């Protein structure tokens, strides 16, 4: 069984299964397929075929054996990328800048909800738990919720070869984080999307819903982000800090363009409170969790390393995030 997975028109994932006659060793052995794009908001009803082209495959942690998960790009019948295929251009940008060996590590925050749409474990009837404080990296009943789902997801990602590098319980109860990376170039978007697919799929087994909303509960509750850690070969080498500082100068005038692709509803999260920066102004600083970009203290001390773009919202598309960062720092594609 090959589970063909694609990104739909509303930032979600869809999938359907194809029987293949023998074990598949490489993604090029898999045929192109198609789906009804009018049912997913990706095509008009009178010209509804959208083509799905396999681009990456992973062992299937649920079906086991030779069964696989297949990540696909979406293509229109006229041979152009579908409107929601952000991978195509990002892959070209990564390819054009391969010499910089760009690494990305993303911190995916999310919230688990019960069937009625309220955070899992919160008092019934839309009640609230006690104020934030005991929950971040919490241990014990009443401090963390749904650890079973989180553990199952972590193990599933490891089985599939997704470069998941850790997990932690977040500041708001029923909110969690996992990290993917470091990955090189386009691999980050591929691994992050597969990790999202697995999160939805595994939460489904437990009757829980996953929300990537950047501010799921209004008020004094932390929002959810997708902190994006970035380094190039030059930044990681001796004296790399000057390359990091040069990148900051490039990022500064492009705040508006970046925020445009850093997720929907991000204005409710980037308020300057709850460890966020202001949405209208680019700032950066060492160890500053209230800045748009933070340089980790250890990197400043060593004079090399990476930077953390704290602006992306949890629901942003990793291909769009990593694509615009590369475009801003190294320039766009030649016409
Ligand atoms: P935080 O302290 O912000 O919570 P985390 O430990 O959650 O940080 O996440 C840090 C992320 O940065 C991880 O995904 C890790 O893989 C990534 N990372 C570490 N070093 C680099 C690097 N040189 N370039 C890019 N990403 C990196
Ligand atoms: Mn049918
Ligand atoms: Mn983190
Ligand atoms: Mn976090
Ligand atoms: Mn972070």
From TrEMBL:
Q: Give the GO cellular component terms, alphabetically.
A: cytoplasm
User: Keyword set for this entry?
Assistant: ATP-binding, Ligase, Nucleotide-binding
Query: Which leading EC class covers this enzyme?
Result: ligase
Which InterPro entries does this one have? Gln_synt_N, Gln_synt_N_sf, Gln_synth/guanido_kin_cat_dom, Gln_synth_cat_dom, Gln_synth_gly_rich_site, Gln_synth_N_conserv_site, Glutamine_Synthetase
- The GS beta-grasp domain sits at 1-79
What SUPFAM superfamilies does UniProt report for this protein, alphabetically? Glutamine synthetase, N-terminal domain, Glutamine synthetase/guanido kinase
Provide the catalytic activity annotation.
L-glutamate + NH4(+) + ATP = L-glutamine + ADP + phosphate + H(+)
Query: For this protein, what is the EC number?
Result: 6.3.1.2
**Which stretches are transmembrane?**
none
Matching Pfam families: Gln-synt_C (PF00120), Gln-synt_N (PF03951)
For molecular function, the Gene Ontology terms on record are: ATP binding; glutamine synthetase activity
The record places domain GS catalytic at 86-335
- State if Cytoplasm is listed as a keyword: no
| Gene Ontology biological process terms, A to Z | glutamine biosynthetic process
Q: Record's superkingdom? A: Eukaryota
Q: How does it assemble?
A: Homooctamer.
Q: Which family does it belong to?
A: Belongs to the glutamine synthetase family.
Question: What name has this protein been given in UniProt?
Answer: Glutamine synthetase
Query: Which species?
Result: Endocarpon pusillum (strain Z07020 / HMAS-L-300199) (Lichen-forming fungus)
């Amino acid at each position: 069984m090959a589970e063909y997975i694609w990104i739909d028109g509303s930032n979600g994932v869809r999938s359907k299964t194809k029987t293949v006659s023998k074990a598949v060793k490489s993604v090029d052995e898999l045929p192109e397929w198609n789906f009804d794009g009018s049912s997913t908001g990706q095509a008009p009803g009178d010209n509804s075929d959208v083509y799905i082209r396999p681009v990456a495959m992973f062992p299937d942690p649920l079906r086991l054996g030779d069964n696989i998960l297949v990540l696909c790009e979406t293509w229109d019948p006229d041979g152009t990328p579908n409107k929601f295929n952000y991978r195509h251009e990002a892959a070209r940008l990564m390819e054009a800048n391969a010499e910089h060996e760009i690494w990305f590590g993303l911190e995916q925050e999310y919230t688990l909800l019960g069937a009625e749409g309220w955070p899992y474990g919160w008092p019934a009837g839309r009640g609230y738990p006690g104020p934030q404080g005991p929950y971040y990296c919490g241990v014990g009943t009443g401090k963390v919720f749904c650890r079973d789902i989180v553990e199952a997801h972590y193990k599933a990602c490891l089985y599939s070869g997704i470069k998941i590098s850790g997990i932690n319980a977040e500041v708001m109860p029923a909110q969690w984080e996992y990290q993917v990376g470091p990955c090189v170039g386009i691999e980050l978007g591929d691994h992050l999307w597969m990790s999202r697919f697995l999160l939805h799929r595994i939460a489904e087994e437990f009757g829980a819903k996953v929300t990537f909303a950047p501010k799921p509960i209004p008020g004094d509750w932390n929002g959810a982000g997708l902190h994006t850690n970035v380094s190039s070969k030059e930044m990681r080498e001796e004296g790399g800090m000057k390359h990091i500082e040069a990148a900051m100068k490039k990022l500064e005038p492009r705040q508006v363009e970046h925020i445009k692709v850093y997720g929907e509803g991000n204005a409710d999260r980037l308020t300057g409170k709850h460890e966020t920066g202001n949405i209208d102004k680019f700032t950066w600083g060492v160890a500053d969790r209230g800045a748009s970009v933070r340089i980790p203290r250890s990197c400043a001390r060593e004079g090399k390393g990476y930077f953390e773009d704290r602006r992306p919202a949890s629901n942003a598309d990793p291909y769009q995030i990593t694509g615009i960062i590369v475009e801003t720092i190294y320039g766009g594609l030649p016409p």
